[in-house]
Amino acid sequence: MASFNDIINKEQPVLVDFYADWCGPCQTMMPILKDVKDTLGESVSILKINIDKNQSIATRFQVRGVPTFMLYKSGKQVWRQSGLIQKNELIQLIKSHQ
Question: Do the Cβ atoms of 32 and 87 come closer than 8 Å?
């Protein structure tokens, strides 16, 4: 299995979604993220990280609330935001880093 660093070091944008099963807004984002992936296809990777099962990585990135999204390009974090995000806003953001 690829490590977190292997995944975020890709040339294409990687959207990291820190979420929790008990989080209502996280559940709201699930179909939005699916739509984003369906729209952008192979030009983006989406990595979902359950903070309850991966507490060390959530601590490492100082995730204090969920959902928290981070966008990586070639291993560098280029954007970060917590809370709900509209599908079109996410698509535009990812396209701007392709």
Answer: yes
